[in-house]
Design goal:
The structure is a single chain. The protein is flat, with a radius of gyration of 39 Å. The chain is of the alpha+beta class. It is built from eight helices and 24 strands. Helix 2 runs antiparallel to helix 7 (455-508), helix 3 runs antiparallel to helix 7 and helix 6 packs antiparallel against helix 7. Strands 3, 4, 6, 7, 8, 12, 23 and 24 form an eight-stranded mixed β-sheet that branches. Strands 13-20-15-16-17 form a five-stranded antiparallel β-sheet, with no helix packed on it.
Length: 545
Amino acid sequence: MALRITQSMMYSGFMSGINRATLGLTESNYQSATQKRVNRPSDDAVSAGRILNTRSTLSTLAIYEENISQAKGWVSLMDSVLGSGTGSVQSVLTRIKELALEGSNGDKTADNRLQISYELREQFKQLINLANSEFSGAHIFGGHKTGQPAYEEGLGVTCMDDGAADALSGALFNAHGSANRTVIIQPVQSGDAYQVNYRYSDDGGATWKPVEGIAVDPPGSPPGADSVCTIQAGGTSFSFNVYKDNNPATPYQVEGVEPMGIIDQGPENPHSNDNGTWIYVRPTAIYQGDDHSNQVVSGYKPSTANAAISGEADGYFTRDVFVRLEGMDAGPPATVRYSYSVDNGSNWVQTSTADPGSDPYRLPVPGGYLTLSGGALNDPADVGSQFVIHPHRAEINYQIGSDNYITVNMVGKDIFGGLYDYPEDGIGYAVPVTSQANLFEVLGDLIAAAETNSQQGMQIGYDALTDVMNVVLTRAAEAGGRSNRLTTTENALLIRTYSEEDLLSGIEDIDPFALSTKLAQQQTTLNSVLKSSSMIMQMSLVNFL
């Protein structure tokens, strides 16, 4: 009986030793296959936690690297489009400037300038193509509106009165259609109180076509009311504001334009004081993207509120800001009480600012200021009036670091200018983009000058191109700076990635030399256990007699 118990205990001990030796060898073989020291948390709990954190960091760095790769594509294309290489915006503008200089020479004839205009129009189309450049199907100069071209070809207006351009009056007109050559329109004084007369030329002013008796829409508008008149001229549809004063016998006048006299229709000097205003309908480009401007809308006004009060916002707003007038305190000190909300009206913050005592009222809000103007704020009549600052967000930012972002696009209208319209804002007419140099408008005027044989106009265009090219050069430098920043960030990111990978390797990777020695030892141990176990288990009582 005791012998059986002793044999059973010996067997159990032998099997435990064999299992331990086999398990150790198996584990070492698994480490040899994976080349990892830590394959599961039970191998080393502390190291396993460090491994997870390091892998998470490497995953984040990989996302940053992918963002940098995408950003480099955007910025590289911008750099190429705006740069000085062949086919770039700067190279096209250089050629346009050469043509402008040629056309401003006094020895050039009307036919010479008309020939120059043909190439100018082709270069104009090329600039629109460049402004509509795409990267991976996204238009890079349209702000967030990447799914549509940033620009479309359109018609612009230049008014000349007494030989000088009136930049402001162009905002009163809206031209549609197409014209292969600049169309000149000239309002003519009408004898009928409810009609508009005009004449136009589609051959540079060589011949004129009179049009009379165009009814104002809506017809029979009451005295003192603004109306709209639409006329057809040389393939274009041309709309403009007309105004009728309180005298029923006075004919409609084109707003912002001096009409030509009924008799005085053809002096030697086309822009003389008695020959009214000439309206040039010439090519331009319409910007269809968005920008960084801030739109202010009236969300609500009580029926007793001052309807003339309007708002403008200035600053940098990243979200809609609601502003509500709460009242005014006579003081002293006199204050304007109001509240604002940055979560669409869910929560309001009450505050106040000093009452200036007169128009305008400048109210500090998160991101900038809301300026109310148009009349005094009558308390309590205006209490409850609400205004919404709605920012137009144009920047596309890529995250390339924990707190590091880069803008990969540009707002086209800040580079190329043109005409601009927010359809949702209710603006009836496309208005010129206000900037220090409006490329498409300058080029449109230059084309008009060439097509109407204006040496002076071409000289003006030549001078204006210098400012235009400086704007493009500045933006090209900005694109180059972003490209350099991406390269620097990418290099730093690679160094960080290599460092994290080395750290991870040091934590989880196995030492192949140590593992080889360990495997040999474990194999020897297992063989010894198996051999000794086999020899002892074969022994019987006879071996001890």
